[in-house]
Amino acid sequence: MQQDSGLRVPGVDKTVAENVFFVAIILKGETRIEKLASSGHLVNSIRSPILANPVLPSHQSPGSNYVTTDRHCDDLRQSTDHSTLVSQLRAHGLSLDDRGTSPPQSPSVPYTEYAFVESQQLMSLPSEDVALLTSKGCLSLPTSNEFDEFIHEYFKHIHPSVPVLNEAEFWRIYRNDRSTGPKISLFVLQSLLLASCPFVSLETLRRCGFDDMRDAQKHLYNKANLLFELRTERRSHANAQGAVLLTHYTSPEDPEAGSLWVTRAIEHAMLLDSHPSLVLENVAISLKKRLWWSILLRDQSLCIGLRHRPRVTSIGFHGWSDWLSIEDFSEELHQSRVYDYDTKKRLLDELQKQCELAVVLTDLDILEEIWPTS
């Protein structure tokens, strides 16, 4: 395929500070062109009455992160986080084991029991917010056996077509029992549980306290959504990853939820390369490419399923084009715990074809807007 295709993926070879690009977001039939100037400052932020504002932390962090990790917190022990949370909750007569009345009574454990999980911003939230998150079960995760099944089903069914995570890096972190080292965002994990939920056995869902798959989806989505709304994650990359995974939520009561999360994913993906950045994030170029292509694929999938205009358009990207390549997946091709090398390679070939198709479909949407058929 020619490199001068209509699609442009920002943040690949140069940062926003070096380029000017536009992101077109179509909300309820209106196209809003958001411009990032070559000075690197956001000239116009994405505005919509139905959108939450991007999470902008109040101070700059000196650390850097990889995937969903933040290395400057490596020296903080998990036990310290646990003690801090316990102290906050005791002031409200709660504990991390409280389930509240909204989530089902389930055999889950506080996230601090897992050395590989973090929610860095949680420590700076008001104690009332922490109490609310605890009472709704947002700070709890399934026990290890059930957790393993959710993770396995995610990499088996969701990851091949929405590769926002580095599978090899994920497994290294997931299997690490030490309190130091890279960690995975709690918001990303709760979003992952929601995305993989339809593929988990009914027996496992019931062991987790859910009545059925629909009941599980509802409660898992509410947990992840509340974590996002209360701004428990400060890093744009983790917020964008979680938002992409939450596009898998479907509900007859809220049919536009998936499209809203596409827009939120775009917001935070744009902030990744904004300059000056309030949070220093060292995200690999291959992960940025994965993120932007995943956003496009999910957007097109929702457009076909819901029969509405795309949020992302080919003329909306005016930056540097770069297709997903085998080099972007070289590590996980050999280190997947779900598929062997040959299967992973075939799945990657199919993913690349899906990307090509998404570009064609997006261009057709633009042509229809320019020259409507009726």
Automatic annotation (TrEMBL):
Residues 151-310 form the Xylanolytic transcriptional activator regulatory domain. It comes from the Eukaryota. The keyword Transmembrane helix does not apply. Keywords: Nucleus. GO terms for molecular function: DNA binding; zinc ion binding. GO terms for biological process: DNA-templated transcription. InterPro entries: Fungal_Detox/Toxin_TFs, XnlR_reg_dom. It holds the Pfam family Fungal_trans. This is Xylanolytic transcriptional activator regulatory domain-containing protein. It comes from Penicillium solitum.
